[in-house]
Automatic annotation (TrEMBL):
This is Hexokinase-2. GO terms for cellular component: cytosol; mitochondrial outer membrane. The keyword Transferase applies. It is an enzyme of class 2 (transferase).
Amino acid sequence: MIASHLLAYYFTELHHDQVQKVDKYLYHLRLSEESLMDLSVRFRREMDRGLGRDTNPTASIKMLPTFVRSTPDGTEKGDFLALDLGGSNFRVLLVKVSTSGKQRVEMENQIYDIPEHLMKGCGSDLFDHIADCLADFLEKLGIKDKKLPLGFTFSFPCQQTKLDESVLLSWTKGFKASGVEGKDVVSLLRKAIKKRGDFDIDIVTVINDTVGTMMTCGYDDQRCEIGLIIGTGTNACYMEEMRHLELVEGDEGRMCVNTEWGAFGDDGSLEDLRTDFDRDIDAGSLNPGKQLFEKMISGMYMGELVRLILVKMTKEGLLFQGQTTPDLLASGHFQTSFVFAIENEKDNEGLLSTEKILIGLGLTPSAEDCVATQRVCQIVSTRAAHLCSAALTAVLRQIRDNKAAERLRTTVGVDGSVYKNHPQFGRRLHKMVRRLVPDCDVRFLRSEDGSSKGSAMVTAVAYRLATQQAERQRVLDTLRLSREQLLEVKRRMEEQISRGLARETHQQASVKMLPTFVRSTPDGTEHGDFLALDLGGTNFRVLLVRVRSGKRRSVEMHNKIYAIPQDTMQGTGEELFDHIVNCIADFLEYMGMKGSSLPLGFTFSFPCKQNKLDEGVLLKWTKGFKASGCEGEDVVGLLKDAVRRREDFDLDVVAVVNDTVGTMMTCGYEDPHCEVGLIVGTGTNACYMEEMRNVELVEGDDGRMCVNMEWGAFGDQGELDDVSTEFDRAVDELSAYPGKQRYEKMISGMYLGEVVRNVLLDFTARGLLFRGRLSERLKSRGIFETRFLSQIESDRLALRQVRSILQHLGLTSSTCEDSILVKEVCSVVSRRAAQLCGAGLAAVVDRIRQNRQLPELRVTVGVDGTLYKLHPHFSTIMLETVRDLAPQCNVSLLQSEDGSGKGAALISAVACRLRDAGQH
């Protein structure tokens, strides 16, 4: 026997010589880091081809969608069946998932054989056998009468079109059952169960073992987003961004992609790395030319690859004194499990095992033969680990780039006999991955019962998502408006417009329809220098506007912005107007115009009653203002009083207007069809040119006058109660003016973020969002700003940026799924706002058309306001709604540039033009 000499021999120079001899002989199987890096780049390129709709058919890496859209979040619960088919035997399991204080999974299972004749026989017989075993399992557990949800792990290349449908592309791992390729395996299983007729189950999901592994490990480690199998076969899956997955509709969120990476190289891209031994393996396989990457890595081929090398080396006289044996020459007789035993480095047990195995093959090995055989195994398995690491590196780089992370921290769930049983494989894989992607912190988590427990977890996640989705949609449906509801809003707006214009009903109308005494839009002949004062929010502006007429007509503006402190907004009226006048004085000095008395247009964006162009009585403060002694007073008078108190300059206030009228006038200067002004910003309002005969609050029937609708108060008499939700009521009750400005509170920028925040609070309380964990910051009123809606709904914004907004709100552990839902809430709330605004606008343009008795009206709406300007979809949805509800009106939208400031100056210019014309 050689065994007694083996250990001593191991440390001699002869051992070194044998290793060198094998290394030289198998030079092409030893890959450099540069080669592996190049392979990783090739693999990534092929992944991109697999993800593309046009390039997928010719890609060797198929990147198959699995329709698994979420990993476990720890709230899953219930009893689930799992069926795991992926080799020569299969398992049936009952998996109980509970969350009573702590995540727990209990499993009962039974293993059943699949006889060789069924693996390679008729497909219907194979599925009948599976159904029989399933019935046996249910009978033994006494649950045959229950219809439990089942997850089916089917570990072969499949094309999925939904979570419970999977068409087998090709058999692998020695299976050849006829009539199954090209068929949906779930249908075949359902058919076999139905044929028996003595039990029923709900097949919810079908997955492969790789996805099962990721899901199992994802239950224990929520960072797990990659599944890897290195066993009889090899494969990987990972969570890919939907926007890259062109084979599936939609670009929100993520979906698990089954790479089917075993087929990498089937297009010839691995030819420079394949050896004659690889070609021999392929030629003798059941599927020549297919799964070439898998044949270089997996357990089904590793032992055979070692055998072919040993045979060739023996025939060349390099081993066993040139003597082969029938067992060494027989395909499949050198098992992959031999490789595991031979490479055991513990107390040199590997060399002792080598001798025993070689003798079992009828050989008479020398000590040198044992060392050389061990080295062959090391080279073959190291190459497999390194090839695997190169492919995994490509996946890690894809995820890191998707997240735009400088450093990726992630977990890879791993299963498979090679990874679990080979003594060195895992260590070699981990080490090379860390060398190839030093900017990724990768944890490898060994899966226990990956594919089986995993299919139950996918089923549990699917059940959780379906239940949660139904509940979310039930809530969100209260915020979605039908066309009939929008038409009714339009009708009620029309009714309130008529009531507001009529002398008898004006007092009771929610839409006040205030005359502005602006009787004309610009005609292009306006000329001169004008001051404008723009007050409508927490900042205000003073402007110098130079209007030039003629061929080169133009408007040149200079302005300065001043803040209004909170205590001034809510102090006395004298303090407020003194502050405004001080800022005007500062501006005149800044412009070198101290002592000048130019015509001034005063944009005052609060509800006012006007008796003439230069007089505006404040009806009520809005937008957070509460300065005392102003409501019921003429704001022009209050401004002039403040000027008198300063005593160092004078003002010629020609016109007081609100921002809506200013917007209409600014756009009217650009487009003569502009006869409607609309603001959708902090607040919302509209104005339009009404026929004088309908404006009963003002004497005279000739011509037209611009009417300031003050439509934000629409709904204050219950007109919107049937489309209002609990979230609107919550926002209203805690606002500065409960019960007032109800339309504005459903549309404008001051309130939309707060509506969204209330929906998010409700979802979190129901456990539908953020795993039921509420951040303290989200409890704060006003913390979810309306600008977040505009940012979150931007088409260019990736979900990782949505998450950064959520992290700013203290939701540091929010998931990708949370981001998708937050985006959906924002979308529903802002869509409703745009539609409600569109319904109101449809009422206005239809009224203008009917006033003029036109079959069709062409009209332009001048629009201003931060929400309108910054929100990516508001204008489109609003215009679609107007055109749908007022089909006889050809409506265009014109965005106003500096409507409120420039508009006030233009009104002053028009007023001066009309006044001068009157004098002459």
